[in-house]
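Aim 2 progress update. The chain analyzed this quarter is reproduced below.
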Amino acid sequence: MDTSTKLQKNIESTEKLSKTALIMVEKINNIAVQNNEDNALATKLLQDNKSLQKQVHDAFDPICDKAHKAWKEAVAQRDKFLTPLTAAEKNIKTKISAFIMERQRIEQEAQRKLDEARKKEEEKQRAALEAKAQKAEKKGDAEKAEELRQKKEEVFIPAAMVESTVEKVKGQSARMAYDFRIVNINAIPRKFLVPDEKKIRQMITTFGKDADIPGVEIFSKVIVSITKEARNERK
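Predicted C-alpha cells:
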C-alpha cells in the first residue's frame, strides 16, 4: 500500500470515528435514567462509549506519543541554550536592582538628614520668636508679643529635595515593587491559609464517614464503572 492510499484510509477512518463519537455523545447526553430499563440502556451506552474511547486511543495515541517525544527533544535542545541565558538575565537584573536600591538608600538617608536639619531650623526660629515675645510681654507690649507669636506660627522653611543619582538608561525600566518571605507560619491569619485537600481526601478515603475533620462535610456518592466481566462480553 503506497503512502497516499494509506493516508486516505487514515482520513476516512478518522472521519468515521468522528461521526460515531458525535452520535455517541448525543445519545448519552439525551438519555434520562429514571427506571431500571433506562439504567440498563445507560450501562450499555457506557460500555459502548468505553469501547469507542479505546478506538480513539488506538488511533491517536501513537501520533500523540510521537509528537510528544519530538516536543520533549525540541524542548531539551532549546533549554541547553535558553536555561543559562535566563539564569544570566536573572543574575544581571539582581545586580542592577541591588545598585538602584543602594543608591535609593543613600538618597533616603540624605533626605532624612535634610528634613531633620530643616525641622531643627524651624524650631530654632520659633524659639527665638517666642523668646522675643516673652520679652515684649515683660515690657508690657502685648501687641508686639502677639505679632511675634503670629510670626512664630508662620515659620516655614521649604523642604530641600535630594535628586536621584541613578542616571536613566535607554532601554531600562525600573519600578518599586513589594515581595514577601514567611518568617512565622503560625502567625499567618486564617484567611491567607489554603486547606490541604490532598490530606483531607486521604483521611476520608481511609476512615470514610467516620473521619472527623472540623469544618468539612462528608457525603456519600455512587461511583459507576464497567466491570471486567461486562468488558469481556464486548470482545
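The chain is about 70% helix and 0% strand. The chain has a mean pLDDT of 91. These observations will guide the mutagenesis experiments scheduled for the next reporting period.
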